[in-house]
Amino acid sequence: MRKFVYHFNEGSKEMKYLLGGKGANLAEMTNIGLPVPPGFTITTEACKDYNEHHQYLSDDIYTEMMTHMEILEQETGKKFGDAENPLLISVRSGAPFSMPGMMDTILNLGLNDQSVQGLERVTQDARSSYDCYRRFIQMFGDVVFRIPGYRFEQALSDLKERKNYTLDTELTAADWQELIAVYKALYVSASGREFPQNPLEQLRLSITAVFDSWENPRAVVYRRLHHIDNQLGTAVNIQSMVFGNTGDTSGTGIAFTRNPSTGDNVFFGEYLLNAQGEDVVAGIRTPEPISHLEDTMPDVYQQLLDVAALLELHYLDMQDIEFTIEKGELFVLQTRNGKRTAQAAINIAVDLVHEGKISKDDAIMRIDTAQIDQLLHPSFDETSLANASVLATGLPASPGAATGQIYFNAEDAVTAAERGEKVILVRNETSPEDIEGMAKSVAILTAHGGMTSHAAVVARGMGKCCVAGCDAIAIDETKKTLQSATATLHEGDFLSLNGSTGNVYVDQIPLVETEIGGHFEELMGWVNETKKLVVRVNADSPNDLEVGLHFGAEGVGLCRTEHMFFQEDRIPYVRQMIIAESKEERLIALSHLKAMQKTDFAGIFRVANGKPVNIRLLDPPLHEFLPKTDADIAKLAQEIGKPADEIKQRVHDLAETNPMLGHRGCRLAITFPEIYMMQAEAIIESAIAIHDEGIAVYPEIMVPLVASREEIALIKKQLKEAIQTIFRKEQLVLPFDIGTMIEIPRACVTADEIAEEAQFFSFGTNDLTQLTFGFSRDDANKFLYAYQEQKILPTDPFQSIDQKGVGALVTTAVQRGRMTNPSLKMGVCGEHGGDPASIQFFHKLGLQYVSCSPYRIPIARIAAAQASILEEQQKVKI
Ligand code: PEP
Ligand code: MG
């Protein structure tokens, strides 16, 4: 027969899937001899059985539970429902993973009109006995029949007002009895039945209510948000009650073995005398700091310190402990690994290594990479945030928090920023033309576009907060208004954005800077010793690269040259290059651009100081650079001395129906080889200049959007010829590589051929995802949320690599590439290079590096180290 119920002495901390986290730890503490009130756990398997049988608690489970109730009666010497010496119990849910929004607790179960008198006799305390009974009715009503707690609280406030009391402690036993009558009436009116007097009925109803709570909407949402498996179920813990509300030598509290905000190794917590569990959390009375317990009950305090030390040593992590003191006797009701801030997580992990309690690998594995994001960006002041109202929610495209005044185009944003305002650029979507406005803004908000849209990618690169694809707002860029369901905002109004959650607030919320201090550097040193993947930075400017190097980048994995083309002094030449109708005309424009690009590349090489710099040749569709309005056309006509009509016609001719699939990437070099040749010359000439300054240089020249061997072979030949000409002229040869991006499915399946022509592959997983799924990078957010809600896709494939599909193509490309070119260098430069789950996948494939935006580098480094440790651990298991 299956066993559905475990007494605390039958379990262990390893059994958390069966007993839930709380149950497993209660069992563990019982077995190491801590003062845990006796009890038992009904397993998660029982919960599954209950759900499988359409919310029916089987006779087997019930009978087994009754056997454990009898044992509990023997252990405590009390009887359930007894009018002389009643056994009272607590009933608490406990899932394998902590789910704070769902935890249901019922205390004092077993009380009824008779047993309350028994309790009074035993405790010699009528006041606390009736207080227990009224609490029980309230919690039972709330958990079992969902009668809102505030209705009971209201009844209590009314009574206090009538009696002219301010504190709960002023209520007498008779007052509580009066309140119990009111509570019972409330119970009848809300549930349509009498409050159950039979303790077994109370127990059965409570257990099934806890099981039912697994499926309640808030629990379902919580599990979805935290990726917790719906099938796990919750356990139910039944434990004999101890009473913290029996006078001034009793109390209850919560203690942390270290400070959960800072990580400092000091005992931390709070307690209330003469109170029961929920009083501490409810905030009705202000708890005392735990250190005061030393003055009032020194022995208990010392015992609590010993318990804390023992538990931390046992679990080898900071513990969050719930305790109750009954008439001077200490009981431990719960222990778990304590929740902590990112800063505390780092400090505690490193301290535990220093104290010889855990290994460096353990410390690295304990770091939650998502939490580290908090440390790298400012965040909202918590108190002000609590009062702010959410206007809308979009995609959390680039983390951090920002507050500022809104402007609807790049030009206005720049002007306002120059006036000294903090600016939030609000656009339907951004384009490369907005780059300066984005640079001058503190944050970017777009109504359209996904996680790899222009706004998202560029904002992440700049380390700026960005909320993208916020389609709950309507933006009118002409009227300069932003409209949501509840408000209309105008230019200059204040807005606050949280790029880590996607929330948009109407108010101005103060920011707090987080300092990365303490042990962060030391931990990152261990990370470097452990990880195998190299972490590079996606950087388009010396400044991006400096930030990247500060965070530990080991080279540039992607420099998108087109981002350099939009500066005001360049755009006329870029436009001239595009609309040129002859090669001669194009070469004139290119010669101007070459001088500018040389300065750009020299700046990056200087900062890189010998580290590899991967420069991608021009990639985006040319028409992105063209003038759009008549005024822009007229201006260009004047600048380059061509009739406006002619320019208009050329712009029209260059327009494409599907620009993302059109004349872009290496296709530009097939039609206009001189563009890439100019860029290659600029790269090599600036490399020589930096080399002449005595600084090492290592350029990698990357050809984008390659689909076939023939493309890369032809382009490589042309580039090499141009480069050799420079070397001959300068009488100098510098090392450089030519390679390709792998971002088209055809390139993956013909990678063996392409690898014969390439020294490296850099996986452009943004385009590869777009082309594999056929999902537009810029529009997929309009439906991807539904794919996730309906579990068609587990996550957004533009954020975390789709291992089954896109990942299989990457695997094929890696295998085929190595087949024909064993020395092929391989890395990733798509956005997935900064995503921990994807990094683990790339590590397993044996790639050499990942590259990501500057602010994600610490996360990528930690994720790379975690991937190495996991691999080692798995080897040991085999
Ligand atoms: C990619 O496609 O993954 C990539 C890095 O290039 P881009 O995002 O510039 O298209
Ligand atoms: Mg691409």
From TrEMBL:
Signal peptide boundaries: none
Cofactor: Mg(2+)
Enzyme class: transferase
Domain called PEP-utilising enzyme C-terminal: residue spans: 519-867
Entries under InterPro entries matching the protein: ATP_grasp_subdomain_1, PEP-util_enz_mobile_dom, PEP_util_AS, PEP_util_C, PEP_util_CS, Phosphohistidine_dom_sf, PPDK_AMP/ATP-bd, Pyruvate_phosphate_dikinase
Ranges of residues in domain Pyruvate phosphate dikinase AMP/ATP-binding: 61-292, 302-348
Keyword line: ATP-binding, Kinase, Magnesium, Metal-binding, Nucleotide-binding, Pyruvate, Transferase
Pfam families from the UniProt entry: PEP-utilizers, PEP-utilizers_C, PPDK_N
Catalytic site positions: 454 (tele-phosphohistidine intermediate), 829 (proton donor)
Domain PEP-utilising enzyme mobile, chain residue ranges per copy: 421-502
NCBIfam families linked to this entry: PRK05878.1 (NF004531), pyru_phos_dikin (TIGR01828)
Family classification: Belongs to the PEP-utilizing enzyme family.
UniProt protein name: Pyruvate, phosphate dikinase
